[in-house]
Inverse folding.
């Protein structure tokens, strides 16, 4: 620590250069934070998938529906502890831009599966009792200012109602939270029975099934058993773990990870040159000063450490500033990706990369400083 | 008194391109504790080279260099560096202060290599600055100091770890007469009152008069040696 | 004036000759800009490629009819009666046999294994009417033959053939519990239909046990006939439909992704450009300090400040241009024409090609010049203000 003033002073020897180098690093880590944050947000659904859960979809494509009767058939498969069903409602509120993640579900079945949701008991009971009742996530409620007791219309881009029209009215009877999965708080859930009675087509069919298994190690066996049950029927099923399901869904959107990695690779590639060249120039200009340090008794290794420490300080400070900026800007993306805060892992990863960058760019100048001969340097040779 | 510095048949060769050039041809030299030696001679005669060998900045091609009983020609790398930190203070013609550090921090540099606490370091720095008469300039940067003041800071840096030996390469070469005399007076005081052994390269015969002994080097050989009676 | 021009030329040329001596620092500008331009151009090439694929699918003189309020075929449903009324509307072109050129279509989705990832992804199985190939003359068979009605046969678009396993000519595909044979491969001139499978609508309906269609597409007598056609359908009380020109429909389909990609390109490219400006500033400041003695000498013997300023700018611009050209070239070499796929509006894969157009390359080079100018500005000012006497002394 006593060397800190020495390192700090050396860092700021040429202010303009240090400021610009610092800023290039800040900018690179700002980008890193944002892009990697988005990437992580997309993957968080995969990473945090519930190991106890299986998803059952139509084998032809997960957009094809399944008969409602499958629900009870799967419930009797050994090892299955609960089954719930969902369908894609495709709803929006007032304007097609205000897309709402809305799903018809059966409240009692839903609650046995959806352990990550928190909803007050009385509100849940009200939902079970109210045919047109809906429960909404806290974030969604806040977004449109919905309160319990409000009557909210959603327009479905898919489902038409008997008697015409695609506008569906719901009574908000509850608001739920999901502390560990903030993005779930954007959901809008309502009674399947109301939905199924009122829709014109597709009656008696559901989008997909969510199966809770008692023992995750039995997942593969249970999945096979479920698929076997419906083999050679008009609606064959394909059962996957929630993780596999999320993964395959992400893969369909495109390889976000691939694009992000490529961009960041490019960013850091050019940063390597910018930082490396700046550190090298600074080392060259300081040759006489480094010789003085050796003269007064700093060892070669000591000088190497000083120069490396300087590049670590430069890179880590700048990286922290960049990551802090990314963390501040990140909530602006909330609507796009549904995640509020920059994941901690991204910050940690950023710091590790900053240290690696510092070592990669600092090693050459530090090595030169180490090899520096006092006599030659003092004589200006 | 016992010789603090003794050189035996010291040869120094440099490689210039592919060619080896012998700069010092078998120097034998003894300097006793408490001496103030002025090393004189024409430019290129090898004064700096000799001084660097004495100060442990460089190692001889052959021969022995002992300082205070330590064969420094046998020390290498890190051990030589640590030896320098404890035993030698250096003063150069162009001061060689770190421009971005205050006088105080410049003086503190050698102490960073010791295990002294921050408070102890500060005390020693203040003491060293007081000796050179610059207590009031502790927070100035080198660029805010005159040449004479900068050289005093350099002397304070050489003194701060209390070495027995001070090695000075043309310490007054860049200073006017009056300032030069002040610096030389300071070195003389350090030699007389604190018993520092001083080896100083100089071109200037007037500067050499401050010393107790004068050595003449020519083309890599010691040609004569005179001792001035201590006044 | 001639004197000044000569001064400028002399100083600039002399300076550019000295750039190779500063190659290390100069590389910072070049690489920083090259990388920025490469990223910008490649992401824009994605947006352009996707837009182009969807634009190739649509024609001004074709109209698509969906149920009112549906934004995509997948969300739409049309009853059989509706699909019979729609082709009879005004403005629909008729073929030699006097029948309207129209196709009522059912969009089924099949999940197939992708060659690249080994994971399954959705592909569109488009059930088309008997006039579908009069309607879309851009579709040509490149291998095999057309499917026959009432038989479970299908043809595969060449982009889908490239992306998915098990759809080669002669292979069998299981859809629900029925087996289909691939009998042909088609090309549609680069449109999104190339990412689809096509079969007879009635056969597909029965395999999916449905009797609702998703869309109806008609060929108009002319581009101008659209309004008459639309008016008739939207005023018909038995219908509740949206009528769009195909061009408009596909532009809407590509809008969201294109907008996202443009956003990413400009935000990411913009931030990277800012980083590149900092790198350029460093390069140019150190170029100016490396030239301090030269500049001071020139000034001392009577050269003006302007030639010096211009020489700094020209150096910055020249390096920026090299960087920009390298970046655009890299984007073109590595990415132009490479196939990418994403989820289209029907929840199925659309394959498209990254397209680096000359105008994209130009916008990359323009960005490079902006970075070069910004990076040269302050260093040029410093060069002009260099204290001559001090620089000469220090040198
Ligand atoms: N590192 C070195 N490499 C090559 N030649 C050197 C080196 N150091 C000194 N010399 C040569 O050795 C001779 C003596 O140099 P030096 O000791 O600096 O002389 P002085 O200090 O007496 O002027 C000179 O000719 C010088 O060029
Ligand atoms: Mg000398």
């Amino acid at each position: 620590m006593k060397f800190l003033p020495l390192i700090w002073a050396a860092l700021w020897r040429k202010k303009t250069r240090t400021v610009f180098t610092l800023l290039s690093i800040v900018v690179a880590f700002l980008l890193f934070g944002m892009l990697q944050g988005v990437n992580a947000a997309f993957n968080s659904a995969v990473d945090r998938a519930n190991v106890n859960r299986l998803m059952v979809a139509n084998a032809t494509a997960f957009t094809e529906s399944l008969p409602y009767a499958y629900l009870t058939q799967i419930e009797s498969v050994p090892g299955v502890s609960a089954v719930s069903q969902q369908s894609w409602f495709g709803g929006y509120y007032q304007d097609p831009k205000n897309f709402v993640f809305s799903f018809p579900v059966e409240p009692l079945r839903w609650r046995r599966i959806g352990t990550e949701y928190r909803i007050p008991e009385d509100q849940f009971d009200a939902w079970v009792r109210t045919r047109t009742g809906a429960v909404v996530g806290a974030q969604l409620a806040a977004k449109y200012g919905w309160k319990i007791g409000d009557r909210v219309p959603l327009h479905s881009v898919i489902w038409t109602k008997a008697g015409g029209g695609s506008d569906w009215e719901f009574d908000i009877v509850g608001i739920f939270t999901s502390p560990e999965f903030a993005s779930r708080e954007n959901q809008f859930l309502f009674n399947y029975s109301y939905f199924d009675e009122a829709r014109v087509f597709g009656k008696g069919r559901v989008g997909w099934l969510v199966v809770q298994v008692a023992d995750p190690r039995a997942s593969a066996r249970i999945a096979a058993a479920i698929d076997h049950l419906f083999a050679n029927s008009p609606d064959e099923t394909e059962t996957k773990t929630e993780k596999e399901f999320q993964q395959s869904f992400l893969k369909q959107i495109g390889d976000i990870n691939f694009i992000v990695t490529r961009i960041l690779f490019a960013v850091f590639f050019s940063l390597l040159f910018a930082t490396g060249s700046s550190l090298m120039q600074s080392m060259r200009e300081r040759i006489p000063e480094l010789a003085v340090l050796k003269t007064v008794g700093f060892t070669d290794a000591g000088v190497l450490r000083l120069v490396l420490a300087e590049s670590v300080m430069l890179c880590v400070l700048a990286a922290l500033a960049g990551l802090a900026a990314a963390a501040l800007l990140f909530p602006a993306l909330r609507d796009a990706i549904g995640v509020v805060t920059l994941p901690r892992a991204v910050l940690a990863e950023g710091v590790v990369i900053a240290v690696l960058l510092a070592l990669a760019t600092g090693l050459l100048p530090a090595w030169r400083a180490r090899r520096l001969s006092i006599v030659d340097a003092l004589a200006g040779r | 008194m016992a010789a603090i510095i003794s050189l035996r048949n010291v040869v120094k060769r440099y490689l210039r391109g592919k060619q080896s050039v012998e700069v010092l041809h078998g120097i034998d030299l003894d300097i006793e504790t408490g001496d103030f030696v002025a090393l004189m001679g024409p430019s290129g005669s090898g004064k700096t080279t000799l001084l660097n060998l004495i100060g442990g900045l460089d190692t001889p091609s052959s021969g022995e260099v002992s300082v205070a009983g330590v064969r420094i020609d046998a020390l290498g790398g890190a051990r030589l560096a640590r030896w320098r930190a404890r035993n030698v203070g250096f003063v150069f013609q162009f001061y060689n202060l770190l421009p971005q550090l205050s006088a105080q921090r410049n003086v503190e540099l050698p102490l960073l290599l010791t295990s002294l606490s921050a408070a102890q370091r500060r005390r020693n720095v203040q003491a060293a600055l007081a000796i050179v008469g610059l207590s009031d300039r502790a927070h100035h940067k080198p660029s805010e100091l005159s040449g004479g003041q900068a050289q005093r800071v350099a002397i304070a840096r050489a003194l701060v770890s209390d070495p027995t030996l001070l090695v000075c390469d043309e310490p007054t070469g860049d200073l006017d007469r009056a300032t030069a005399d002040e610096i030389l007076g300071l070195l003389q005081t350090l030699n007389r009152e604190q018993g520092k052994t001083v080896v100083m390269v100089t071109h200037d015969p007037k500067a050499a008069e401050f010393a107790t002994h004068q050595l003449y080097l020519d083309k890599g050989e010691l040609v004569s040696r005179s001792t001035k009676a201590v006044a | 004036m001639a004197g000044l021009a000569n001064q400028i030329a002399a100083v600039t040329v002399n300076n550019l000759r000295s750039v190779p001596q500063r190659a290390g620092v100069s590389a910072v500008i070049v690489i920083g800009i090259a990388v920025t331009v490469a990223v910008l151009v490649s992401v824009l090439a994605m947006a352009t490629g996707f837009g182009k694929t969807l634009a190739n699918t649509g024609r001004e003189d074709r109209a698509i009819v969906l149920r009112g309020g549906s934004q995509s075929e997948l969300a739409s449903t049309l009853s059989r009666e509706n699909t019979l009324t729609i082709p009879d509307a005004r403005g629909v072109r008729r073929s030699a046999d006097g029948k309207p050129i129209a196709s009522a279509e059912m969009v089924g989705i099949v999940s197939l294994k992708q060659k690249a990832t080994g994971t399954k992804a959705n592909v569109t199985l488009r059930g088309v009417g008997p006039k579908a190939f009069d309607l879309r003359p851009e579709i040509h068979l490149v291998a095999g033959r057309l499917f026959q009605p009432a038989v479970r046969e299908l043809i595969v678009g060449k982009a889908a053939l490239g992306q998915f396993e098990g759809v080669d000519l002669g292979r069998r595909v299981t859809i629900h519990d029925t087996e289909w044979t691939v009998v042909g491969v088609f090309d549609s001139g680069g449109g999104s239909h190339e990412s689809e499978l096509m079969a007879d609508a009635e056969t597909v309906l029965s395999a999916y046990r449905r009797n609702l269609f998703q869309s109806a597409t008609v060929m108009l007598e002319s581009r101008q006939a659209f309004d008459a056609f639309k008016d008739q359908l939207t005023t018909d009380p038995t219908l509740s439909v949206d009528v769009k020109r195909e061009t408009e429909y596909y532009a809407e389909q590509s809008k969201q992704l294109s907008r996202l990609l443009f956003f990413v390109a400009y935000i990411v490219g913009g931030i990277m450009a800012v980083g590149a400006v900092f790198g350029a500033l460093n390069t140019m400041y150190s170029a100016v300090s490396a030239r301090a003695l030269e500049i001071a000498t020139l000034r001392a013997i009577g050269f003006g400040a302007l030639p010096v300023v211009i020489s700094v700018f020209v150096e910055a611009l020249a390096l920026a241009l090299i960087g920009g050209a390298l970046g655009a070239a890299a984007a073109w070499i590595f990415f132009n024409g490479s196939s990418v796929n994403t989820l289209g509006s029907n929840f199925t894969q659309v394959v498209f090609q990254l397209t680096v157009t000359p105008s994209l390359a130009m916008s990359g080079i323009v960005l490079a010049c902006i970075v070069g100018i910004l990076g040269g500005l302050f260093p040029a000012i410093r060069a002009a203000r260099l204290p001559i006497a001090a620089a000469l002394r220090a040198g």
Observations:
- Chain A has a mean pLDDT of 91.
- Chain A touches chain B at residues 2-3, 5-6, 9-10, 12-13, 288-289, 291-302, 374-375, 378-379 (CB under 8 Å).
